[in-house]
Amino acid sequence: MNKTIISLAILGMVAIPMTAQETYQDTKMVDNDLNGTARYVGMGGAMEALGADISTISSNPAGIGLFRKSQLTLSGGLVTQQDAKNKISFRGSDLTINGDKTNLSFDQLGFVWTTRMPSNSYLNVAFNYHKSRNFDQLLTAANQLSYASQNKQTVRKYAYGVSLKNKEMANYMWNAVDAGYSRLLQYRNVDEKGQPVDEYAYMNASDYLFGQYQSGYIGEYDFNLSGNIHDRVYLGLTVGLHDVHYKSASTYGENLVNNAIAGSEENLEITGTGCDIKIGAIFRPIESSPFRIGAYVHTPTWYNLTMKGNASVYLNGLKDTDEKMGPNNGTQNNSTSLEYKLYTPWKFGLSLGHTVGNQLALGATYEYADYSTMDNRVIDGGYYDYDPYIGGYNYYDSSSSDQTMNEHTKNTLKSVSTLKLGVEFKAMPDVAVRLGYNYVSPMFSKDGYRDGSLLSQGSANATSTNYTNWKSTNRITAGIGYTFKKFFADLAYQYSMTNGDFYPFMAYYDNPKDPSPSIEDNLPTASKVSNKRHQLLVTLGYKF
């Protein structure tokens, strides 16, 4: 057992009811899936210039302007995670996670209403629901540790704050996990003058196990107005409402070098709503050619979110413990509830589309978004304003940017480029075959980390310490479609793969100015993880 020489009073968790969130949690709100109708997915989503598919309502709204008939569509399917494990073993230890690697999914429902105008023009109105993010995922990781542990992080974190003679920093970075360990690790000692002082012990670990099951979704409700001018220029506007439902249950355990065990469990829920505006255009530069160019812009999604989290920290198997002297075996629970705002970055897209007769359609799309510019916002007040239309008062939140967390976001996240390619070939007039490909560049910096030492309320209210730096995403899609009079049915398959590096906690150095190794450092060992997912999607539609 290693002991520190830091004297301090025991600190409880800083529970702040209204605050901002932190970078790694925020990325759950911006990392969209490729989802929608089976035709859209089968072509890799590369339809932002081709249009005439209701899924373009959420990417390039002008795509709705190419409809010539009204349409109703319904989509759903099956999503399964390859190589997902409900049980993981490492060095004789086992960990079981409750969760399903295969789930049914309701993915899309929408309609387009077309109205013919003079001069071969149309005015179209559309509504569409689609699942922009499916959170269902099993994640497991295991590895060895050397002179490191989650409980050591609590002690090193406080030591770092005190070494900078910044008590405010030490208090702010005291999150739910630290609060639990602090009560278990504290022990009574005497100083050089024989006076009793409270100190901390920490115990290094030899290895760790981690398991997590995430579930839920973000549902997007899009309302669109679009049309075309002389069948050459197509314009569209979409207002989107986002509905967030995220849950996570995770377990982290360590085998300590003194044959005891320690770890933490987290239950997390994030709910809320957001809204955004999307505008787009498609035009045919050559009147006699079907070649099209599309462009679109998305405003940030302005989220109002609530997070409820609980951290349960345990320490078991210690010998010769003393309730008065400590450290002690036991379990400590801490909870928090946060209300905060998040503004995602602007998104820009450019697309190309071309058709060859009625047999072949080709599409390509490039999207860009700078996720380092996400705005984490603290709700710092509110006010009432009288509304004469309702004869009463409306309440409005006031908020301000969390500059410290935003700086961390800037250093941790990067701009992301997405490339979509798709092709559709009609082997027969009523049968279409589709192929698609996506590449999404990494969002996380290679050296990014979840910093629990920030002077930010987001760090202070964390209920876990782990994080994953996910790398690029590759998607391969295929599909087939069949039309019978006014009815049509489409089937699509999608395979997506993302690799990443999992860390159980952030790294701490005993002397930040001296990077040479020291047994007082707390350096976690990364584990290679992956998220490989298969999706089977069916769309049924009716044109009228």
TrEMBL record:
Instruction: Give the top-rank taxon of the lineage listed in the UniProt record for this protein.
Output: Bacteria
Which chain regions cross the lipid bilayer?
Answer: none
Which InterPro entries would you find in this protein's record? OMPP1/FadL/TodX
Q: Which UniProt keywords apply?
A: Cell outer membrane, Membrane, Receptor, Signal, Transmembrane, Transmembrane beta strand
Residues of the signal peptide: 1-20
Provide the protein's localization: Cell outer membrane
Gene3D superfamilies, alphabetically? Outer membrane protein transport protein (OMPP1/FadL/TodX)
Instruction: List the membrane topology term(s).
Output: Multi-pass membrane protein
Signal among keywords: yes
Q: Which family does it belong to?
A: Belongs to the OmpP1/FadL family.
> What's the protein here called?
Hemin receptor
Task: Look up and give the organism this protein is from.
Answer: Prevotella illustrans
